[in-house]
Amino acid sequence: xxxxxxxxxxxxxxxxxxxxxxxxxxxxxxxxxxxxxxxxxxxxxxxxxxxxxxxxxxxxxxxxxxxxxxxxxxxxxxxxxxxxxxxxxxxxxxxxxxxxxxxxxxxxxxxxxxxxxxxxxxxxxxxxxxxxxxxxxxxxxxxxxxxxxxxxxxxxxxxxxxxxxxxxxxxxxxxxxxxxxxxxxxxxxxxxxxxxxxxxxxxxxxxxxxxxxxxxxxxxxxxxxxxxxxxxxxxxxxxxxxxxxxxxxxxxxxxxxxxxxxxxxxxxxxxxxxxxxxxxxxxxxxxxxxxxxxxxxxxxxxxxxxxxxxxxxxxxxxxxxxxxxxxxxxxxxxxxxxxxxxxxxxxxxxxxxxxxxxxxxxxxxxxxxxxxxxxxxxxxxxxxxxxxxx
Length: 390
Prior knowledge:
The protein is an alpha+beta fold. The chain has three domains: 7-72 and 318-389, conserved putative lor/sdh protein from methanococcus maripaludis s2 fold, CATH 2.40.420; 77-87 and 236-313, Efflux pump adaptor protein, beta barrel domain (Elongation Factor Tu (Ef-tu), domain 3, Beta Barrel); 123-194, Helix Hairpins. Helices cover 25% and strands 33% of the residues. It contains four helices and 25 strands. The protein has helices spanning 7-31, 123-154, 160-187, 377-389; strands at 45-47, 50-52, 65-67, 69-70, 75-84, 90-92, 98-103, 110-111, 116-121, 196-200, 205-210, 217-218, 231-234, 238-245, 258-262, 271-282, 289-296, 307-313, 320-323, 328-330, 333-341, 344-350, 352-356, 359-362, 371-373. The strands form five sheets. Strands 1, 2, 3, 20, 21, 22 and 25 form a seven-stranded antiparallel beta sheet that branches. The protein has a six-stranded antiparallel beta barrel with strand order 5-14-17-16-15-18. β21 and β22 (344-350) form a beta hairpin. The longest helix has 32 residues, at 123-154. The two termini are 21 Å apart. The relative contact order is 0.19.
């Protein structure tokens, strides 16, 4: 069974802490060549969250302090990568299965709208060509038959029901012809049955990816089987950047916001981007928010899938800055020791708002001009803990 420590035990703990502090002070004085030796060191006094040292205490020399400064806006950095601008990108698949007969372009080539990319020999496409020819022939027959039956009906030779049947056949033939002609306009091949399906560029741009070889068999279901596209065409002068942001960054991010991009590959070069979209949801696995920005790339220095860092100016507000070594964690709360007079140190709770370059931004708890302990805060914390235990 656990019991509370006795009065003598608590006294021993307090004495041990003071002796440890005295030993550290003695070591410091010895390193500086002081001849005090083992002279008695004045003991500090502890009251609630306050530690006070006598003016002649050598321990004061161990407690370095730094001034609390008003915060300037800290730059928030977001990691991300460059991706193709999907508004200017197309992934080309074959609408018909068959064998690749020839390839007209290669990676890096610039293509125009409608330019031939490759030719695929496709029985399926030949069937579609045949259907178009047959639909045109059926339409001609239905049209001639309708004219003949209409003439006979007007002269009382054919019954009215024959005219209605001829009109229905004509409507069906016309609809089928319209369907096949629309397909021919979309995929080509309306004039001949040669089974040669021509892959054409849907938009102008640069071929940045090519996954097709002569003699290769292609299928029409590749787009649904997660197979790579045969060609990827995009405009590399306009790119997107996918960035990961934390919840704390949300107040700084909004569509239309300018953001600076840097990449280790091009040190010293800054690319200016503009935020297009901030996701409405948080990734449940990474707890990050997706941010998309657009960036111009006139020199083509940025490449697809290149890693970048986005920089967004922060907001100072009522923040202050202190050295990182001044802030320590006790339980789940952050504290600093404020030097509020000669030899007096007050433990003060603070609220962190970010850290960069060895400086911690604090939302509240301190004011510019105050001084905080930046070395041996553990000594002060031990003295407080010992007193609390007593």
